[in-house]
Amino acid sequence: MREIEVKARVNNLESLVDKIKTQNIKLGPKLEQHDIVYGQPGKTDNEFGSVWLRVRVENKTKTYFTLKKSVRGHLDSIEHEVVVNDPDELKHIITQMGFKLYSDLTKVRQKAKIGNIELCVDHLVGLGDYVEAEMLVTDNADYKRVETELWDFLNTLGVSKSDEELRGYDVIERANRE
């Protein structure tokens, strides 16, 4: 599947959550997600066709392994994900395949599903608050149409495209660290 998302920095998280509630959208419970991302040596941030591997530990209990292959940049990728039961062994496998640690971040996320859109309200430790709207689509979906639909939805929540963030969280974390 292909995941297309749009993202914005949130200046007033309380105001956004209030707006979400007034639209009768119910956010799920808070999830702590610790993401460790590995990149291919020699590849730049999400260049076309680059592969990124993520090990996500959710609430310190469940681990997901995700492969993302960049299509149009940071927020448009082919994605495959499975649950794994041994994250430490998986990390050894990834490094033995030649992938290098790219980023390591923790966020607290609340999600809601509105039709075919997933809404994510995120607090990134040390980096601030963000909101994402994303959609899983076929590999050949019309990017511009999906992007417009996602922004139209975020606008109903008072989120302005002027606050758009074009980078993935892994790239934001790495840039902040360097």
Report on this model:
This protein is α+β, with helices and mostly antiparallel strands and 178 residues long. It has four helices and eight strands. The chain is globular and about 50 Å long.
Tell me the layout of helices and strands.
Blueprint: E1 2-10, H1 13-22, E2 31-39, E3 51-58, E4 62-73, E5 76-84, H2 87-96, E6 100-114, E7 117-124, E8 128-137, H3 143-156, H4 169-177
Q: What is shown here, in short?
A:
This protein is of the alpha+beta class. It contains four helices and eight strands; from the N terminus they run βαββββαβββαα.
Number of strands: 8
Count of discrete alpha- or pi-helical segments spanning 4 or more residues: 4
Indicate the low-confidence ranges by residue numbers.
Answer: none
Global mean pLDDT: 93
- Residue share in β-strands: 35-45%
Class per helix and strand makeup: alpha+beta
Output the radius of gyration: 16 Å
User: Biggest sheet, strands in spatial order?
Assistant: 1-5-4-3-2-6-7-8
Biggest sheet overview: 8 strands, antiparallel, barrel
Q: Helix-strand pattern, N to C?
A: EHEEEEHEEEHH
Helix content: 10-25%
Task: Give keywords.
4 helices; 178 residues
